[in-house]
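Subject: Post-GPI attachment to proteins 6 structure
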Amino acid sequence: MLDSGAGPVGVMAAALPQRPPALVQPLPAARPVGLVSEHFSQAPQRLSFYSWYGSARLFRFRVPPDTVLLRWLLQVSREGGTACTDAEITVHFRSGAPPVINPLGTSFPDDTSVQPSFQVRVPLSAAPLSNASVNVSHPAPGDWFVAAHLPPSSQKIELKGLAPTCAYVFQPDLLVTRVVEISVMEPDVPVPHTLLSHPSYLKVFVPDYTRELLLELRDCVSSGSLGCPVRLTVGPVTLPSNFQKVLTCTSAPWPCRLLLPSPPWDRWLQVTAESLVGPLGTVTFSAVAALTACRPQSVAIQPLLQSSRNQSFNASTGLPSLSPDHQDLGRSGSVGRSPFCLTNYPVMREDVDVVSVHFQLLDRVSVRVCPNTPSMMRLRLNTGMDSGGSLTISLRANKTEMQNETVIVACVNAASPFLGFNSSLNCTTAFFQGYPLSLSAWSLRANLIIPYPETDNWYLSLQLLCPENAEECEQAVVHVETTLYLVPCLNDCGPYGQCLLLRRHSYLYAGCSCKAGWRGWSCTDNSTAQTVAQQRAATLLLTLSNLMFLAPITVSVQRFFLVEASVYAYTMFFSTFYHACDQPGEAVLCILNYDTLQYCDFLGSGAAIWVTILCMARLKAVLKYVLFLLGTLVIAMSLQLDRRGIWNMLGPCLFAFVIMASMWTYRCGHRRQCYPTSWQRWAFYLLPGISMASVGVAIYTSMMTSDNYYYTHSIWHVLLAGSAALLLPPPDEHAEPWACSQKFPCHYQICKNDREELYTVT
């Protein structure tokens, strides 16, 4: 079942009626001695249609060291029967950080560097379950992230519980093959090996400040062919990019060598040797690893050195004695050529908040950039919790020190710094493609934004160059100010976005939720954005449309339905100010917190429908007001349980409709004629009111989208208020609404309501 012939990364997909047992079993047992298998799994998650990064479901796995093969088993199922349609699930993979995805094709902020994510698509059609597998050979150890989502959403506002829903569930499993018998290569010590049909695994440790790593095969002898039929695979596979090195020694000049500039520091580097002579041949060779050290020149931190009481003092000067590798570069002037390969500037990491870090230089505000050696700063983003934000780097050169011929070139790399400015400017190290920056007399500023940086040590290296005349740079020195931050969201997603902190188990990452038609990673894409005039028009439509409730309020007061009038006034007030607070743009007014306004608006809408239908039933006053109170309490309780559930509000309203229909049916049978009896009542009030209510319900349940919400919901306000004004019953024409039956000498009156039975009202 392994797709080993497809290179370092292979993909297999299949739609199956049920989960095949072979996919959950370990890898085939016929493997060489020294390999073990491990299985990792996480709980399934329900997928959502994509609208922003929070719509994607993120999974985090930990790949152990010395892993030679990992296999993702992707399972997608659906629950919902006939309500489910064909769908295509997109799954993204990345090593070291969550994948940066862009399903909507929006633009990123300026100066943002983004690599396309590695993704596979899993179709889900007729079968209720679909499976796919992804194989990665020689993966990088550490965190691996998987993100899955459905296609972009249709922007239609769905009412919860109105129609049957379909649930798409995604679960990834991880099978790992890890080597336990591995040879350790010591620097400059030949390691003899004999290759048979199975590969041989080696590893070499690369310490800090290693400039180059040279791998060499010596004394190669083959029993089945001439030359040295050996293939070396060096380094890990990282997605979406892959800089793994493969060296085939069959036709290479002898001895067979592989030179790796700036290999990753402070870690083991895996080397796999495979025989190319077939299953019966043998190959013997010796592998040698040679490391070229880089001697750093560290900048002294005078305040810290002087404050330490354990320093050694020079008897003649009374100053702290520094090692030969430390010099104070705070004074002006050039250092001249020296055996140092770089100048290391210490950086302090200040943790500000969750996924928020500030890096600043110790004892200085700028970096001294020279032409002879690169200046380097190390940014420690290796805690495992720093990959969920955005790394922002800003450089500013001193204008007075920049000459027309000079250029400052900077590279931002992970794992190891780029040091080869004198030979190349591509910022490429052994296994990482860096991010280049440049400063000149015409461009004194440079910015770089890296969303979701990989978990590792990051390095900023700078060097001064004179492309036209190198001799002019001999004495040149330029100070560069650096601003280095890790922030959850760039500029807090701007004025038209909200930075939200997302969580997957204990891992935290941030994303921008945009509004007012703005889109993009940081809500900077205005291709579909609303203008300020459109935002104000939307606010005015949604708020002023509630003035239509003045019609049912006036009718209720005229007909002495004072409780109903109070409910309509409550609904008009809170609906107006809820929609004034609910606006995404600049035209926003909140008199209370958003949640309170939303609850009161939903409660007022449900209560308005409830009292209108019960008023049409023409119940006795005591029974009517008891039902008013009980129904409102039930609606309030249901909204607290599930505010978006349509049946929590629709249930009480249907119950009120049953009461009204029962009372009308009783009166029809009691009078032996249709109720109400007047055709004018049907033609000018009931039928228009029912039509307006039906159209309003149809718009509310099936026509509203995120784009047309501001005018379709305004129409809903008008139709709801207008139908209430038309459907309210007329007053009693045969009795005063409040008749006084008895008077007392103390000027108090006992009044009773005679409008309890109005069977003759037409």
